Every structure is written in structure tokens, then in C-alpha cells.
Amino acid sequence: MTLLVISPDYASHLLPLATLATAWRDRGERVVVATGPATAGIVEAFGFERRDLRLGRGSNPGVIAAGEQPPDEGASLRGFFRATEEGALATLRYQAEERLTDLMWDPVGRARATRRIVDDLVPDHVIVDHLAFSARLGLLGAGTSHGDVVLGHPTALPVGDELYGVPPAWPSAFDPDPSGLEDLRRLCRRVSERFTEEWNRAATELDPGHRPVEDAFAEHGPLVLYNYPTELVDDARRRLLPTHRFLGSARRSEAEDADVEAWLAQGRPFAYVSFGSFLSVRGDVLARVAEALRLVGVRAAVATGSTDAAELGAVPSDWLVRPYLPQVRLLAAASAAVTHGGNNSVTEAIGAGVPLVVLPFSTDQFAGAAAVEAAGFGVALDPNAATARDLADAIRRVLDLPVSDRARLDATAAAQAARPGPEVAFEALSA
Length: 431
Prior knowledge:
One of its GO terms (biological process) is antibiotic biosynthetic process. By secondary structure, the protein is α/β, with parallel strands linked by helices. The chain has 17 helices and 13 strands.
């Protein structure tokens, strides 16, 4: 049996997809990953085969830096980072304006390249990142059955009256200007219309018999796999979803790090901090988080990413600070986590029963933060407005989570441990 995994050339996308594929690998099946060269090391570390498939102009093997990208992508990243400093609406507007070139890069060429790989391998099962739109064009046009993996909050695949790029819910700390929000809606509607036109043009070139779709962002494969805990999705929205499974999380195995194990062996409570591969550039916010942790008096494990550790200020001797840390291992022992609200951070924390302080900057992070808040699994704050004292108060709140919320979080983690995401994906595709 052969599983084909299709992923953009970004570590944050490939890691959960590759983890899902371990359900096939551990049964002795063949796993082939189609992705770009930057993440070849990750494919090799999992013991998979790789086929070259570039799905976008940028890439990220782990920690991203604008200067290491092609000129157009580097300029786009710098613009994005500047927008995050202006606030939520400015960031969402910037991302909407960038969306056409970001998501539909060489759609016909990439769709045909995907088909060539499928024709060569004749895989028994296929899983593909939902945001790999050009690859999905190839799969859908050829009628190739596949699992469509939504990484991030489920609103990455809009349903009902949702509009891609506009958060359907906001955390309580955010109060976006109504006129600015309406401007964002108008912009996202225009982008959706243009994106759909591009999708339909590409699909027609690939298949002259293609029937135009009304909203390409709402298109999906025959089976949608949400890499997300079902406990964070309300019943009203769940009723609108296509044929699907909730995976909970794709908590990967990590190589043992002797220094990390020695640090953990001290046995004292700690908070884990990470802003992921992109948003770790926001050293100003990381510095405020570090100050908050000093105010609370709790030790910390901080993944600084692209931020210089010197920006954190005086680091207590009992802290663990590195550019990159084994996140899953540390979350397994952490008492709290402070995150930007990325999919891996949120799902892996909840899978470990760790309450969250979420500081959302962009895209679906706002909806995800609102969901964490509504479930009682953490606190959300505005990263640009929260002071060190605000952050300290939030950290204290999650360290002392109410008993009922603590019990539900523990039950969610136990359910994921009993049925891990890779096993749910394997069962769903094998059915």
C-alpha cells in the first residue's frame, strides 16, 4: 500500500501532515511525500521517500527569515511583519491583498505536476494540505480520491455565510472598528471573486468540461480531515460541515534532547513560550511575555525563533532559552503555554492538557483564540496592546484554571491520547 502526502514547502505544514502519515509507516506501508527541497530533511527524518513538488514561491525549513526568501517573497514577508505591528485589521487586509499570488502560484503547472506524480505512483491513499490549492486542482480534476487536511481553525474552509479572510468570531480583548471590519469584508469579497475566477480558468484549462464553482475557497475534497479538537467547534457550525473527521491533533514524536531532559528533571512548574516559525520575529511582544513571566515568578522554556535572545532582557538562570525547542516534549510537562495561536501550538497544547495564553496576530488565529477562550481552555489578549502586567495576570489565570475547565481540558487530552489523530486519519481513509 502506498500513501502520497502533498505539502507546501513549509515545516509548519509538513510536520503535522508527516505525523499523520506515521500511521501508514508504522504498519509497514510505503509513504511518499511530494513537497519542495527546503523541507527535505524533515521528510528524511520521518523515513519517507520524497518527490519534488514546488507549490509556492516561498519556503521554510523551520525558522523563517525574510532575507532567506526569493526577493518577491522576502518583500511580502517584511510587509506582513510591518502589518502585524499596526494591528489585526491591518494584518488581515494585507494578507487579503497578497492572497492571489500567495495561494495560486502557477496553478496549471502545479496541478499537472501533481497529476504526473499521482500517475507515476498510483497511490492507494492521498492526503493533501487544504491550502495547496493548485495541487488540489489537479486531484479534483482527475477525480483522485483524497483526504483534504485543514490545518488551522476550521474556518480555513468557509461554510455557510462565512467569508474567507474575515474572522467569524473575535476574542473578547479585540473590538475591531465596525467601518474597518466592513472594509475588510468588501476587500475579502473582491479577493474571493478574483481567486474563484483564477480557479475556474485554471480548472477549465485542465479540463474543458469543468463546471465553474461559485467560491473556490469553499471547495474541498471528498473527505475533510480537520486537524483540530472537536471540543473547540460549536454545534451550529458543525452541522454545516462537509463529510469530515476531527483529528484532534497530530502530536509528533521528537528526538530526545539530553539537555532538555536534564532541565525537565528539576521537576518545577514552567510555562512554554513560542510564536512559531513566522511570528517569532515579533521580539517586542516576546520581551513583554518574558517580563510577565518574571513578574509571575514562574520559570520558562522560550523558543525565540528569529528573535535574538538578548531582546528578552535579563533571563533567569533556571530558564531554558533557545531559537528552537522540542515543543511536543516540553508541552507534555508544561503547566501553561503562551502562543501566537498557530495550529500546531494550539492543538499540541490541548492534546497535552496544557491551558493557553493566546496572542493572535493574523489569519485564523483570531477565530482560534476565540474558540480557546469560549471553551475555557485559556485566555486571549491583543499582542499589540497587552502590557507585561496584563500578560502576567493572564498567565496566573491559566495556571489556576477553574476546576470545571481543568476537568474538561484533561478529558479532551485523554480522548486524543486514546484515539490519536494519525489513527483517526488512517481509519477514515481506509473506510
